[in-house]
UniProtKB/TrEMBL annotation:
<dbReference type="InterPro" id="IPR017850">
    <property type="entry name" value="Alkaline_phosphatase_core_sf"/>
</dbReference>
<dbReference type="InterPro" id="IPR047115">
    <property type="entry name" value="ARSB"/>
</dbReference>
<keyword id="KW-0378">Hydrolase</keyword>
<dbReference type="InterPro" id="IPR024607">
    <property type="entry name" value="Sulfatase_CS"/>
</dbReference>
<dbReference type="Pfam" id="PF00884">
    <property type="entry name" value="Sulfatase"/>
</dbReference>
<dbReference type="GO" id="GO:0008484">
    <property type="term" value="F:sulfuric ester hydrolase activity"/>
</dbReference>
<comment type="similarity">
    <text>Belongs to the sulfatase family.</text>
</comment>
<dbReference type="InterPro" id="IPR000917">
    <property type="entry name" value="Sulfatase_N"/>
</dbReference>
<protein>
    <submittedName>
        <fullName>ARSI Arylsulfatase</fullName>
    </submittedName>
</protein>
<feature type="domain" description="Sulfatase N-terminal">
    <location>
        <begin position="50"/>
        <end position="361"/>
    </location>
</feature>
<keyword id="KW-0479">Metal-binding</keyword>
<dbReference type="GO" id="GO:0046872">
    <property type="term" value="F:metal ion binding"/>
</dbReference>
<keyword id="KW-0106">Calcium</keyword>
<keyword id="KW-0325">Glycoprotein</keyword>
Length: 573
């Protein structure tokens, strides 16, 4: 049995914090707001397609919302969730691009070629252009579509931009990490550029405005200029609460008693985002949209624990396939929900929003076969059983293979060195290297040095490459059952084999120095011309240029950047 080491706290202090309680999901924390489960409150009839507001936050930890017992103040989110339906069996992906791509396409990463890492600023890569996106389907259904916030689905050519992928308007950043005020982003030493765009133009004039406020104000402006008689879809992808940890001082002051500086700044950013959601909700009511609206709230991945986030009491963090990396905060708030004020344990995945929202919009899904998502609206609105019974968390053939994995350990049908994870029913299987595996409580104490957040660390089992958990009975992944239930391991490995047969090649091309902002007026933006649009295929290395002279002019620079990138890769998030 695994041995756990406790450092820095006594058992009594842990119990006083409530961190060792098995009843972390007891009614006092996340159960339904008091209501009769048989309540039959009828919503307004669906006389016309509803307005859809999808709010996605960045790097917000599972613990970091009021109704999960957090020390961070989120009164707006708590109220919206309490009056709607909380999704407590809701899954996302462990990092940015994968979650966003699956939301926009309704397909697993293995079916878009984006199963490895994220799309980096200098890569000639983007969401595959043959994918029909969620906003495109909503446009077909007569919706006005708008995006505000972080894209992070590639931009190396104009066809990849949000306004070419189904959005009528766009205000936000194209890369994955920008300053909240200056909108500068550095992709390595000396590779820096401005990244705030209005449509397909650089929005230089917006510099200096805090992004969380700017994005909420833009949503209000969109609602004010649109008619509530016409359906609208607004995708609000807040940059918050991704690093850098920046917030207006008045929000930080609220948490002045919080000893840990990173946690203090992070908490301020979460509360600031909560108030931005309040302003958006107020605008929906002011301009006449609210009664016919559906608000979906979702995180994009688990919290980054060394940047103030907390996924407690779940195991792991952002970038891992433990529950702390893939179980998300999610809820739906709408006057149109039939059974409100409750908690749903229906299994829901981020891919499910595509068919769910298109169905709500009365759109046509018949011409987009092969979706991995399901329409889960009956489960959300009426409390019916979820049509989903399993989730492929991912199969990443390029991630560092586990040292101790082998085909033999996978019954001769699966190489357990490969990073993969799947959930089927109540069972969850992980193979390869799932990522950092500690249980990390909120970092509220002062002067935690070095490995300060490692309250509880797994000290054996490091030579493993297969883990099995009954995730319903053991949501914290403390009891590995892979040795006791080889039959279940084999069954789930067979499911991985099945999915792997449907996977397309990984799209992860080498970075290109032509993407440097210095060649684009100091801003990140499309850099590949129409002439060399066919220079890259699939996910391999860039193909040889037809214009050899042109390539030779930058070959030395390209080699330099590749070597530099190799050195930096291990330090990137």
């Amino acid at each position: 049995m695994a041995v756990y080491a406790f450092t820095g706290f006594s058992l009594v202090s842990l119990l006083s914090f409530g961190y060792l309680s098995w009843d972390w999901m007891k009614p006092s924390l996340v159960a339904d707001v008091a209501t009769d489960p048989m309540e039959k409150s009828l919503p307004p009839a669906f006389t016309r397609p509803p307005h859809i507001i999808f709010i996605l936050t960045d790097d917000q930890g599972y613990h970091d919302i009021g109704y999960h017992g957090s020390d961070i103040q989120t009164p707006t989110l708590d109220r919206l969730a309490a009056e709607g339906v909380k999704l407590e069996n809701y899954y996302i992906q462990p990092i940015c691009t994968p979650s966003r791509s699956q939301l926009i396409t309704g397909r697993y990463q293995i079916h878009t070629g984006l199963q490895h890492s994220i799309i980096r600023p200098r890569q000639p890569n983007c969401l595959p252009l043959d994918q029909v996106t969620l906003p495109q389907k909503l446009q077909e259904a007569g919706y006005s579509t708008h995006m505000v916030g972080k894209w992070h689905l590639g931009f190396y050519k104009k066809e990849c931009l949000p306004t070419r992928r189904g959005f009528d308007t766009f205000l936000g950043s194209l890369t994955g990490n920008v300053d909240y005020y200056t909108y500068d982003n550095c992709d390595g030493p000396g590779v820096c550029g401005y990244d705030l765009h209005e449509g397909e133009d650089v929005a230089w004039d917006q510099s200096g405005k805090y992004s969380t406020f700017l994005y909420a104000q833009r949503v209000s402006k969109i609602l004010a200029s649109h008619s509530p008689k016409e359906p609208i879809f607004i995708y609000v992808a807040f940059q918050a609460v991704h690093t850098p940890l920046q917030s207006p001082k008045e929000y930080i002051y609220r948490y002045r008693s919080m000893g840990n500086v990173a946690r203090r700044k992070y908490a301020a950013m979460v509360t600031c985002m909560d108030e931005a959601v309040k302003n958006i909700t107020w605008a929906l009511k002011k301009y006449g949209y609210y009664e016919n609206s559906v608000i979906v709230f979702s995180t994009d991945n688990g919290g980054q624990t060394f940047s103030g986030g907390s996924n407690w009491p779940l195991r792991g963090r952002k970038g891992t396939y433990w529950e702390g990396g893939v179980r998300g905060i999610g809820f739906v708030h709408s006057p149109l929900i039939k059974r409100k004020r409750r908690t749903s344990w229906a299994l829901v995945h981020i891919t499910d929003w595509y068919p769910t929202l298109v169905s709500l919009a009365r759109g046509n899904l018949s011409n987009v076969p092969g979706l991995d998502g399901y329409n889960v609206w009956p489960a959300i609105s009426e409390g019916k059983e979820s049509p989903r019974t399993e989730i492929l968390h991912n199969i990443d053939p390029l991630y560092n293979h586990a040292k101790y994995g082998s085909l033999e350990d996978g019954f001769g049908i699966w190489n357990t060195a490969v990073q993969a994870s799947i959930r089927v029913g109540e069972w969850k299987l992980l193979t390869g290297d799932p990522g950092y595996s500690d249980w990390i409580p909120p970092q509220t104490l002062t002067n935690f040095p070095g490995s300060w957040w490692n309250l509880e660390r797994l000290t054996d089992g490091l030579k493993k490459s297969v883990w099995l958990f009954n995730i319903t009975a053991d949501p914290y992944e403390r009891y590995d059952l892979s040795d006791q239930r080889p039959d279940v391991v084999r069954t789930l490995l067979m499911r991985l084999v099945h999915y792997n047969r449907t996977a397309i090649p990984v799209r992860y091309p080498a970075e290109n120095p032509r993407a440097h902002p210095d060649f684009n007026g100091g801003a990140w933006g499309p850099w590949a011309s129409e002439d060399d649009a066919d220079e890259w295929e699939g996910g391999g290395e860039p193909l040889k240029s037809r214009n050899k002279k042109k390539k030779c002019k930058i070959c030395k620079l390209r080699s330099f950047f590749r070597k530099l990138n190799t050195r930096l890769m291990s330090n990137r998030i």
